[in-house]
Specification:
Length: about 375
């Protein structure tokens, strides 16, 4: 009886995490239009002073093209500032930035290498913009990115805006196919959460915040996690700008994907729980609902996968029904192994690739949770 209950509840939770939550959001969006932010007007002529902050470490091969891409974006020239925050770079990054003959471009360098987050903390004090746009040397903006991102701030209730991040790759690998499906699902959730006024996450490569709402960040937390939560606690909205499109490179290596998932889970779990009042449904009903459903349960999903798998195999001898359930679970893992093998061979099979990336992501989540249990703190730099 116990394992039947565990099997059922773990399956229902996993279904909710990866399918049901989006269905619930769509239903709320359909029936509860009055609470939606979709009708909020934006002033296309709104032109506050903005600072685009690029945090970099040894990016000499990319930094010039990245700065040029930003300068080519449509925005009001006198209202644009680009600050490259070089966190102790030892290559030619600083020299290249100083050689750019545009007075809108500035180099900021801490006295010693302090890590990505602390570099951002220091550079924002140096920045002159009312709006701080966060990005990195890997990303690329479409020409109208800044205009479409910043005009959301014409609504005084908006404190943070996240752009629509799209991943690119030249490799049709198992990981890239599976990641593409995962990120498409993620963007659908963010768009609806934004319309409902309950978005609490962002993308660090393409997000902006009012400088007046920025709080100094703990170096162990990611800016894409902690800044939206601070904005919400300051009684402002986080919104998604679907037409502010940015591109980033998709990771296609197993080791890199595992490392990224593990690191993000650790930093974002700790960052979210540092603002645990937002997880209280009595104080913040909509935000607690989105954070638990969108993030916390997803990070915990490997635990439910493990419970489901063990329960299914224990029950396999109880009846023909549970034998088929255990067979389905076994087949799921076999599909994951096939996805890994075909990935090594350099091609992909859509459904199999999705299963493989799901398993890989959950291994990454589990590694991150182990880091949380051990009390690990990462004050690191993405490179």
């Amino acid at each position: 009886m116990l394992f039947e209950f565990l099997l059922s509840i773990s399956f229902l939770i996993l279904f909710y995490i990866y399918y049901g939550y989006l269905i619930v959001l769509k239903l709320i969006d359909f029936f509860y239009k009055n609470h939606s932010l979709s009708g909020v007007s934006c002033d296309g002529n709104y032109a506050p002073k903005i600072t685009v902050l690029i945090t970099a470490y040894n990016e000499e091969e990319k930094i010039l093209k990245r700065v040029e891409n930003i300068l080519q974006c449509e925005y009001f020239d006198n209202s644009l500032e680009v600050v490259v925050a070089s966190d102790g770079s030892t290559d030619g990054t600083d020299r290249i930035v100083n050689s750019i003959s545009d007075n809108r471009v500035k180099l900021f360098r801490p006295e010693t290498r302090v890590g990505k987050t602390e570099t951002q903390n220091l550079a924002i004090q140096y920045a002159n913009g009312e709006i701080i746009v966060f990005t990195d040397a890997e990303s690329k903006f479409e020409n109208n990115f800044l205009i479409n991102l910043v005009k959301k701030f014409s609504n005084s209730k908006v404190g943070c805006v996240t752009g629509s991040l799209h991943f690119t790759t030249n490799i049709d690998s198992t990981i890239s196919v599976g990641q593409g499906y995962y990120w498409s699902y993620e963007l659908k959730i963010r768009k609806i959460e934004s319309r409902l006024g309950m978005l609490a996450v962002s993308s660090g490569a393409c997000m902006a915040v009012r400088k007046s709402l920025f709080n100094k960040m703990d170096g162990a937390y990611g800016e894409d996690c902690i800044i939206p939560l601070d904005v919400i606690l300051n009684k402002h909205y986080v919104v998604h700008a679907s037409n502010a499109i940015a591109y980033d490179r998709m990771e296609c290596e197993i080791e890199t994907e595992l490392s990224t998932r593990s690191r993000m889970t650790l930093r974002n779990w700790q960052g979210t729980w540092s603002k645990k009042t937002l997880l209280n449904p009595f104080k913040f009903p909509s935000y607690s609902f989105s954070l638990w459903s969108h993030k916390i349960l997803r990070w915990l999903s490997p635990i439910f996968v493990l419970i489901l798998s063990i329960s299914a195999f224990i029950l396999s001898s109880e009846s023909i029904f549970y034998w088929y359930v255990s067979l389905a679970v076994f087949s799921f893992y076999i599909a994951g192994i096939v996805g890994w093998i075909v990935g090594i061979k350099g091609f992909s099979i859509p459904l199999v690739s999705n299963i493989y990336v799901f398993i890989l992501a959950n291994i990454g989540f589990m590694k991150g949770l182990f880091g949380v249990i051990k009390g690990k703190h990462l004050k690191i730099y993405r490179n």
